[in-house]
Design goal:
Arc Repressor Mutant, subunit A; ten-stranded mixed sheet; D-Maltodextrin-Binding Protein, domain 2; 367 residues
Length: 367
Amino acid sequence: MRKIELSYSFTDRAGPRRIHNALMDLLGAVRDAGSISGAAKLVGLSYRHVWGELKRWETELGHDLIVWDKGQPARLSEFGDKLLWAERQAQARLAPQIAALHADLEHAFALAFDDAAHVLTFFASHDDALALLREQAVAQSRLHLDIRFCGSVDAISALNQGRCVMAGFHTPPDADLGTVSQHAYQGLLQPGHHKLIGFALRSQGLVVASGNPRRLASLADLAQPGVRFINRGLGSGTRVLLDQLMASAGLQPSEIAGYANSESSHAAVAQQVASGAADAGLCIEAVAHSRGLDFVPLVQEHYFLVCLKDALDQPAVLALLEVLRSDSWKQQIAALPGYEPWKSGEVLSLKRELPWWDLAPKRKRAI
């Protein structure tokens, strides 16, 4: 079985919306012209090149493509006929999909040639408001956000490694010295090198089945016998938040059945609860409501955007700040359950918003 490899090329000529294959073009030209020389003229190549290509393909495919009788017009062999027939059948059958793929590629690459449009690479902790922002940015500023959702720790790491321009992470307002949040994020962020951008205040809590049948009202209730919990994965901001809340409540992982079981997103956690596979998980309010589940609020947290200081002057970042500061965006995010616009689009001081450095014991100067 021969494998098929698809490719595309750039051109300034309009042409049929079909997948192009050089061998099939040669076979079609031989059939139409009745000779190798005639086929060479049809495809705009030399006789020697066309002859050599046909011979090369015969060796490659292990079948004769042309009947090479001296003194007779060149014609396709039975295998050559079947090959051309199969390709034309496939082209006809797949024509709508091929046209759609062609249009999608042209649309995507049109962005690269549009000086007024911008693309911003974005690694971020999963957030429903960011999905909404992606639509608003395109409509308002022709800014295309290439967002890849991952854990908060992984997002900032990707920023530091140069794999994105912007990262998104979240942390509770009381993330003081010695907290889990400090240990997770302080080593990744450097005052003077990173810049925070205000985005939103959002509510996180327990997602539970409709009607809250287990009557869960606090994190401590997860330690009740028979309560099944579903966690978020290591590296996620929600996992960091959970560990910090547990430390404040004096809870140990061994006290919560299911602490070791994790899902990769808020939506996946909510689905586990909706399916009955778990009684509770930690997620944002908007996701719980979207699936008809109940929500027990535990904490309001800041969702920050962060970039390197040098990126603030980039056109894509300036366009993003403009969108975030607009009244239309603030109205949209305020309508999302569990969200409030908070210093949206403001460039913030790392030390002022995350006071770990100011709270750290000052080292004595060497004498």
